[in-house]
Design a protein that fits this description.
With 429 residues, the chain is α+β, with helices and mostly antiparallel strands. The protein contains 13 helices and 17 strands. The chain has a six-stranded antiparallel sheet, sandwiched between helices. α6 packs antiparallel against α7 and α8 crosses α10. The longest helix has 38 residues.
Length: 429
């Protein structure tokens, strides 16, 4: 349904705004674009045609106006001074217009003006999803979820499309809350189960005289299995909570400089026990003093997950290499192992939640299937990405790419999630 709305919007914008801009160029007066018909309303100090008016020389007429008004998505066209010159009924219903600076005038919502300014400055289309409060402060009404897409029509005019995604945002919140609540409630019984399993292991410790007792041997084997599975379940719960936080259940911390020297030292320290158990050497090669911008704990978690994954799928007496490269805009951290590799048909799916290329191997290593999904979300939250190249039987290289510059945001959008940026008028890669 949303795709159909986009198609209709494209057709309507092409016909309607093209007519507006062609007349704007001929007349040279923004007021003449919208006409001076009696049915026009004053918004932002300018007249905006809100209905089909056959008597208006420059007003929208015929199928163009009807098509725009019939769309379920809101459409607002802003001129070079961020004044709305075209608004359809859906945009009005969404509350995308506000009172202007002087009595009796109407202006576009500040978020729309912010997006328009960024599009004009960069020449790149912007897309965000955000929640706007409805009603008075403290109202019990759920916020209005909007997907906003701003595209430059020329050097001054910007078209903003708004789609109502309130229901999908509500479902996402319910899902996150459910996972977080269930995971939190499971932590206590799982912790108790681990303690009981450890006590049972101590109680069934075999002496030399008891080594022939089949019952004690079986009890200890079962106790060891219970301890192993409860530890794995504990890791699963912790990673579910971490993934829920990364997906938006909690606000992201403000980006800060993160010293990668500390991150590398922390990662090597965290993985020392698991690497020593398999006699795997974790080595680092790269520049000193590099800095990325984001959350130090999240960056350390992402690199740690990559190194632990490399150790889990590598054989004994091998090496895991950490390599760093940097330029003015990006820093790339490679984690290379000498493990079993990944089949080509699994490469595109390994960052999915709970997907594991080798189910049997994952059970033996105690994997949860969430480690790489957490890495992907951390990379996305920092404006970067994670990639993998692998040869089956020849090892794998995971590359974490993070920004080396602080994010530039002249006017931050409240509660917004940047989801895509591409050349104006062109699909992004």
């Amino acid at each position: 349904m949303y795709g159909t709305g986009l198609l209709l919007l494209g057709l309507a914008i092409g016909a309607v705004v093209g007519l507006l801009l062609s007349r704007f160029r001929r007349s040279g007066s923004p007021d003449e674009v919208t006409g001076h018909a009696p049915s026009a309303t004053i918004e932002g100090g300018r007249k905006i045609s809100t209905e089909e008016d056959p008597s208006s020389k420059h007003g929208l007429k015929g199928l163009g106006r009807k098509s725009l008004d019939s769309l379920r998505v809101g459409v607002v066209v802003l001129d070079g001074e961020d004044e709305p010159i075209l608004v359809n009924p859906a945009a009005r219903a969404m509350g995308l217009l506000r009172s202007g600076g002087t009595p009796g005038t109407i202006a576009a919502h500040p978020i729309l003006r912010t997006l328009a300014g960024q599009v004009r400055r960069t020449g790149v289309r912007r897309e965000v999803e955000l929640d706007l409060p409805r009603g008075r402060a403290g109202s019990a009404s759920a916020p209005l979820g909007l997907h906003l897409r701003a595209v430059a029509l020329n050097s001054t005019h910007v078209a903003v499309e708004a789609a109502d995604v309130t229901e999908s945002h509500r479902l996402a919140r319910v899902r996150r809350d459910f996972v977080a609540n269930v995971s939190h409630e499971l932590k206590t019984p799982i912790g108790a189960l681990q303690l009981l399993a450890e006590a049972l292991l101590d109680a069934t410790e075999l002496s030399a005289a008891e080594s022939q007792s089949e019952d004690l041997v079986a009890a200890r084997r079962f106790a060891d299995r219970i301890h192993h599975e409860s530890a794995r379940m504990g890791r699963l719960v912790n990673e579910l909570l971490e993934l829920t936080r990364l997906q938006g259940a909690e606000p992201l911390p403000a980006p800060e400089p993160v010293a990668l020297d500390w991150v590398i030292a922390e990662v090597i320290d965290r993985t020392r026990t698991t690497s020593s158990a398999k006699n795997i050497e974790v080595v680092y090669a790269g520049p000193k003093g590099a800095t990325v911008y984001g959350s130090d704990s999240q960056v350390a978690t992402a690199v740690t997950n990559l190194v632990e994954n490399a150790i889990a799928y590598s054989g004994e007496d091998t090496q895991v290499a950490l390599t760093m490269r940097q330029d003015e805009d990006w820093i790339e951290i490679d984690v290379t192992d000498q493990g079993i590799g990944i089949a080509p048909h699994d490469v595109d799916r390994i960052f999915e939640r709970f997907y594991r290329a080798d189910q049997a191997r994952s059970r033996s290593t105690g994997g949860t299937g969430l480690g790489l999904a957490i890495v992907k979300h951390i990379a996305t939250n920092h404006g970067g990405r994670v990639e993998v190249t692998s040869t089956l039987g020849g090892g794998s290289t995971f590359t974490l790419r993070l920004p080396a510059r602080p994010p530039e945001s002249p006017l931050p959008l409240p509660a917004a999630i940047e989801i895509e940026s591409g050349a104006a008028g062109l699909p992004s890669a």
